[in-house]
Specification:
Elements (H helix, E strand, L loop, with lengths): L1 E4 L4 E9 L3 E11 L2 E5 L7 H11 L1 E6 L5 H4 L2 H8 L3 E3 L4 H4 L20 E3 L10 E5 L8 E5 L4 E3 L5 E2 L4 E2 L9 H7 L2 H5 L3 E3 L6 E2 L4 H9 L2
Parallel strand pairs: 4-5, 5-6, 6-7, 10-13
Antiparallel strand pairs: 1-2, 2-3, 3-4, 8-9, 9-10, 11-12, 13-14
The structure holds zinc ion.
Zinc ion binds next to loops.
Length: 220
């Protein structure tokens, strides 16, 4: 695991998954004075390293999940057990996280290890944090992105796969509705963050041509 500070309050933890292709998995730690908020938790075998990373920078307060796919939530059970902190995701994601319905286009129920303990995100949840969440449905029905409003860093989960220059769609096979996902990407032109950080790609600086080009290339 490799942790780097990407802005005054945001740290990115990078784990490598050894598949046929090398794929990074990112989780993020948001520091607010001594408090630490964990955005996504990676897979279970990374959880111990993530726990160490959290404790090295402050006191964990809550876990915020972008969506319920296993490479974002599987580590959560261990973190919840260790830290005894609340965990949140979008209301629309909860039936899948709870294993009450399979994700659309899938047959199997998810086994996230945190069924029925994830609470719905509300304005209240993050009222005292310099973070805002935005629903960006498409990759999954309740996918959200998190924006750190002081640092202007957008943690975009699986909304895009990113290189240092460009936006690409997430893996089609794992996405419920690709056109809806691409339309949800318009959020970057609304927020205009300084930096965009995705779960499985490199960080890139925002500019107002990025999304236009992406739509041109990938929208049906
Ligand atoms: Zn995903």
């Amino acid at each position: 695991m490799n942790m780097k500070q990407i802005s005054e309050h945001v740290f990115q933890c990078e784990f490598e998954l050894d598949l046929s292709i090398r794929m990074p998995i990112h989780t993020w730690l948001i520091k607010d004075d001594e408090d630490v908020y964990i955005i996504d938790t990676g897979i279970e075998k990374f959880a111990d390293d993530l726990i160490k990373a959290v404790l090295s920078i402050g006191t964990p307060k809550a876990i915020l999940i972008t969506h319920g796919h296993h490479d974002h939530i599987e580590g959560a059970a261990k973190l919840v057990e260790k830290f005894n902190i609340p965990i949140y995701a979008h209301q629309k994601e909860l039936i899948y996280i709870n294993g009450e319905a399979p994700y659309p286009k899938k047959d199997e129920l998810e086994n996230t290890g945190v069924a029925h303990i994830v609470q719905p995100l509300t304005e209240q949840t993050i009222a005292y944090l310099p973070i805002q969440y935005y629903l960006t449905s498409g990759h999954s029905p309740g996918h959200v992105v998190y924006h750190h409003e002081i640092d202007r860093v957008l943690l975009s989960g699986d909304l895009f796969i990113t290189s240092q220059e460009d936006l690409y769609p997430p893996i089609r096979k794992f996405s419920v509705d690709m056109n809806e996902n691409i339309d949800s990407g318009a959020i970057i032109d609304e927020i205009k963050p300084t930096l965009i950080c995705s779960s499985h790609g490199q960080s890139l600086f925002y500019n107002d041509q990025l999304y236009k080009k992406y739509v041109w290339n990938y929208r049906d």
